[in-house]
Amino acid sequence: xxTYIIKRVIGAFAMLIVISMVTFGIFYVVPQWAGASPxxxxxRYVGRAxxxxxxxxxxxxxGFNDPVIVQYGRFVKGLVAGxxxxxxxxxxxxxxxCFGYSFISGQPVWPDLLDRLPVTFSLxxxxxxxxxxxxxxxxxxxxxxxxxxxxxxxMGTALAGVSLPxxxxxxxxxxxxxYALGWTPPGGAYTDFSVNPAxxxxxxxxxxxxxxxxxxxxxxxxxxxxxxxTMGEDYIRTARAKGLHExxxxxxxxxxxxxxxxxxxxxxxxxxxxxGAILTETTYTLPGLGQxxxxxxxxxxxxxxMGVVLVAAMFVVVASLIVDLLYxxxxxxxxxx
Amino acid sequence: MxxxxxxxxxxxxxxxxxxxxxxxxxxTQQPADSSSGGAAQxxxxxxxxxxxxxxxKKGGTLKAAHSAxxxxxxxxxxxxxxxxxxxxxxxxxLTMYKPGPGPEGNTVIPDLAxxxxxxxxxxxxxxxxxxxxxxFEDGTxxxxxxxxxxxxxxxxxxTFPHGPSYLNELLDWPKDFKGVYEDPDADYSSAVEATDDSxxxxxxxxxxxxxxxxxxxxxxxxxxxxxxxxxxxKEKVVSSGPYKFETNEIGKGFTLxxxxxxxxxxxxxxxxxxxxxxxxVNVNADxxxxxxxxxxxxxxxxxxxxxxxxxxxxxxxxALKARTDNPTIPRLWYVSVIPDTPPLDxxxxxxxxxxxxxxxxxQTAYGGELAGGEIATNVLPPPIVGQEKFDLYATPGNxxxxxxxxxxxxxxGQPNGFSTTMTYRSDxxxxxxxxxxxxxxxAKVGIKxxxxxxxxxxxxxxYAGNVNYVKKNGIGLAAHGWGSDWPDGYGFMQAIVxxxxxxxxxxxxxxxxxxxxxxxxxxxxxxxxxxARAKLWVDVDKKVMEDASILPVVWAKSLLMRGKxxxxxxxxxxxxxxxxxxxxxx
Lengths: 337, 586
Known about the structure:
Number of strands of chain B: 23
Number of helices of chain A: 13
Distance between the termini of chain B: 28 Å
Shape of chain B: globular
Strand order of the largest sheet of chain B: 14-18-13-17-15-16
Oligomer: heterodimer
Order of helices and strands of chain A: HHHHEEHHHHHHHHH
C-alpha cells in the first residue's frame, strides 16, 4: 500500500510538472510563434495609450525579454526557493511556494489562492452532500421501482438537470428566488463560515442547490443503471434466498457493488470542483478559485493562471488517488499493488 | 469647531443652491421636500439636465458594484473613467469637473487649488495655488510638496504602468531622471516643483493649453511621501477627500467611511451624503444589472450602461425605462480605414468605403439609437467642447451611395472593386455585427471583405494595433472605439489621430497618418484662446474626414439606470456617467 502511494505521488508530481510546462508554453511560446514581441505581450498589462517607453519598461520588469527557458526556470525557482518582488518603494520577499505576482494587480498569487480556497470548499462540500444523497437515493429508488411514475419523473428531471447549463439555471434561480421572491440572498452575498455559520449556509443555499441539481442528475442516472445491473446478479438472488432483509440486500449487496463507478466519478467531480466551480462562482459572484480562474484567463494574467491551474490539477490528482485507495474498501475484489 | 460647523453649514447651503439651480431648467418635477429625497417621479432622462431626486439628507449606506476589477485604487496608477469619477470620494485633485448635470459639467473648476491654473511663458508654465486648511486623513497638512511628489512618483511607469502618461510627455523632466524610488534625492523641479507650501508650478516642454483638464486627473492627488509604499500604496491609500478606506480586499471589494479630517469648508463641491460606501468588485455583469433593477445595489460603478440582457427587459417596460437616462457620451465607435494596405493607400479607395457604407445598418449593428448611439458623421462626438457636426459623405437616408462609391473606385484605379480584410473583437457581438454589415454594404460596390475576429484582450497588442501584423496580413479595415480622456479636442482625438503616437504594437491610432493633421494638432495644443482652440480641433476633425482614414459609425449612447433609493442623481458630461460625488441614499 505504502509503495503504491509513493508511486502515485511521484507520478502526480511528474504530471504537475508537465502541466506547468504546457500552461507556460501556451502563454509564452504560442504568442511568440504568432510573431508577438516582448513589447506586444507587455502592452496587455499597461494602461491605454501607454508610451513605448512604458511598454518597454513593463516588458523588462515582467522578464519577457528573457528566453522562455529562463522565464520558466525563474518560475520554478520561485516555487521551490521563493522570490523577491520590487514594488518600487522597496523589495518584498515572497516565500516558497511563490507563484509570482499578478501582472495586473501586483498581488502575490499564493495568498490570494489560499484566501479563496475556503469559498470553493464551502461550495463544493455543501453541493456534494446534496447531490450524492439526492442523486444516489433517487437512483436507487428509481431502479427498485423501474417503470413507475417516480422513475419516469425523476429520470426526466435528471435529464433536464444534465442538459441545462448552470449559468442558465443559476441566473433563473437568482431572478426567481432572490429578486422576485426574496427567499435567498442576491449574488455576491457570501459570508465566511467563521463569521456566521447560519449566514454562511444561507448565502450558499442557492448555489448548492443549483450545482447539486446539475450533478445529482448524472449520479441518479448512473446509480439507477448500476443498481439495475447489480440487482439482477446471482449473488443478490442468493442473498434473498438466504432470507436476508430486503433493505440489507439492497444496501449491503446491491448498492455497495453499484457504488464503485460512482465513487470514481465523485472523486474526479469533487477534485474538479475544488479546483474551481467556474460557472457557479461566476454566476453567483462567489470569490472562490473558479472566479479567480476565469478572471485570470480573461486578463491573461500568467502568474494567476499558473497558480490556479496547478492547484486545480493537484486537487484532481489527490482526489483520484483517494478514490483509488477507497476502491479497496468499497470493493473487496480490488487489491492495490 | 464652531467655525468649522458654521462653514460646513454654509458649504451645504451653497451646494443646495447649486443643486437647485441645476434642477431648475428642465421639465421634470422636483420634490417638495429636498431635504430627504424620495418624492421625485421617475421619468426617462430625468437625470440628464437636472438633478433627479435632490436631497441634502446625510447618512445611510450606498451599495455599489463593479462587474470587473479596478485597475488600481492608487491615484497615480489608474486610468478608467469610473475610477476618476469614484476616486474623488477619497482623493482631491488640483481641479475637477463642475459637479452636476448639463453642459456645464464639461467645465473645470478648482478643487485643491484656489483657482484655475495661471499660464505664463506662452503656456509653457502653469501655476496653481492651494487652498489653506487641507488635510490628509491622519490630520497632517496637505502642501504643494505632496502634490509635486504625487506627480513625481506617477512618472515611474515601471511601478505604475496603468496610469495616464500625459504628464510624462508634457512636462520637462530631467534627462537622467529615474523616478522617485530609484533615486529618492533626484531633483525634478524642471518638471514640477513646490515653490512654497501652497504653490505648485508645472514646467512644460511645449506650450499646452488644456492643462486645467490634465490636472483634474488623479496624478495630482496628493500623496504623503512618508506613507508612499510604491506599487503597494493601492492597498492603503491615504485619503484627501471626504471618505477614507475602512477595508480593502483587492479583487473582492472595499468599504469607505467618513474621513473626519476632511473639511467641507475647503470643498463646496462634495456633499458627502452617505455615511458609508460599500463596493463589491468582480460581480457577474448580468446579475449586477438584476441587482440594480431589484434594488439590492444602488450603483453600477463602471457607468457604461446596462448589459444587452437587461436592455431587453428594461426598454419595453415603462416603469423600468423611467428609471434610466440615455446620454450621448464622448465616445465614438468607428472603423479604421488603414492606408498602409493597398489599394487603401489611395485616398479615393478609402473614400469609396465611406460612400459605400450603410450607416443605418452600422447603427443597427450597435444596437440602434437608444442602446447604440446616434449616427456619427464626423470624428468628434457632440459632448466635446466646441464640437461641430458636418458630413462630407452624406448619402440618401444614410444608406450609402453606390454610384459615388463606384466613381471613387474608378478614380482609385479599381473600377471593379478590390478585396481586403476587416478585423473586429470577437468577444464584442456588436463589432461582429458591424463587420457583417460592412461586408454586405461594401459587396454592393465590389469591395470584398474577409472578416477576422480576435480576442479583445490582445486586439491592439497582437493584431489590429500591431504594425507588423497589419502589414503582413493585409488588414484594410478594423473595428475600433474610443472615449475621451477629457472633453476637448486634445482629450478625445490626440491618441487616435496623431501619427507620432504610432509604435510597433499596442496602437490605438490605427489609420491616421497625415502630416497636416499632426501640424494642426500642434497648433491646437498650443492655442490658449478657448474658442480659437476649439475651432482648430474642428479643423483637425475635417482634415481626418477628408483623409477618409476613419469611418465614423455611432456617437455612443449609454443606458444608465438610477438605483432604487438614490438621491442627487445627475449625469455629468465631464465624467460621462452619473456624478458619484453627489450621490446620497434615502
